[in-house]
TrEMBL record:
Residues the record lists as binding NAD(+): 93-98
Superkingdom as given in the UniProt entry: Bacteria
Domain CoA-binding, first and last residues per copy: 82-184
Annotated SMART domains: CoA_binding
Subunit structure, as described in the record: Homodimer.
Designated gene of the protein: rex
Protein name: Redox-sensing transcriptional repressor Rex
Species whose genome carries this gene: Streptococcus oriscaviae
Keyword Metal-binding on entry: no
């Protein structure tokens, strides 16, 4: 199977990669060996042309009239998404959102795991353990990550602290940040940031509800 072509993958396509992986895992668990673009599209809620266009960025993943080999595509997307190895993640901020993420069992769904969490040095949670995950003071980020060597972090701190904490994460060797803080971060180009704005997503949902 050909690997990713030397071309830029559209952001919309990149955001669907984990959906494709999830669908192929579900098909495989259901003992489905082959799947058409129509079946994949219906499982995700998009059209078949979009599936074929997305897959075209990665070379020949299937054959016309034959469909897609479920096991091969599941393995292919696992490799692309680095789900063949454990990914250590650190969590910054253990407020309501942070606590919910601490209790979310990532490892039961994929090979990501939160290995440590951080809060303000004077926060009462510092020095405790939640879901077997130790909570440290933010000033210890660099020291603790020198041991854990995580490159990914989830940021759930208040907006007025997000940039300051993100700068600390970069110094600690973090290369990817999933930010729940509704503020754009100014970081080096080699650091990837993905924003999750629940308020915005809900407002968009309400807009389409009213429009419909």
């Amino acid at each position: 199977m050909k690997k990713e072509k030397n071309t830029t993958i559209p952001r919309a396509t990149a955001k669907r990669l984990s959906l494709y992986y999830r669908i192929f895992k579900r098909f495989h668990a259901g003992n489905i060996e082959k799947a058409s673009s129509k079946e994949i599209a219906e499982a995700i809620g998009i059209d078949a042309a979009t599936v074929r266009r997305d897959f075209s960025y990665f070379g020949e993943l299937g054959r016309r009239g034959f469909g897609y080999d479920v096991k091969k595509l599941m393995d292919f997307f696992a490799e692309i998404l680095n789900d063949n190895s454990i990914t250590n993640v650190m969590l910054i901020g253990v407020g309501n959102m942070g606590r919910a993420l601490l209790h979310y069992r990532f490892h039961e769904r994929n090979k990501m795991r939160i290995v440590m969490a951080f809060e303000a040095d004077d926060h009462p949670a510092v020095g405790t353990i939640d879901e077997n995950i130790p909570i440290y003071g933010i000033s210890d980020i660099q020291e603790k990550n020198a041991e854990a060597k995580a490159q990914t972090a989830i940021l759930t701190v208040p907006s007025n602290k997000a940039q300051e904490v993100a700068d600390l994460l970069v110094k600690a060797g973090i290369k990817g940040i999933l930010s729940f803080s509704p503020v754009n971060l100014s970081l080096p180009k080699d650091v990837v940031v993905q924003y999750v704005d629940l308020t915005s997503e809900l407002q968009t949902l309400l807009y389409f509800m009213r429009k419909g």
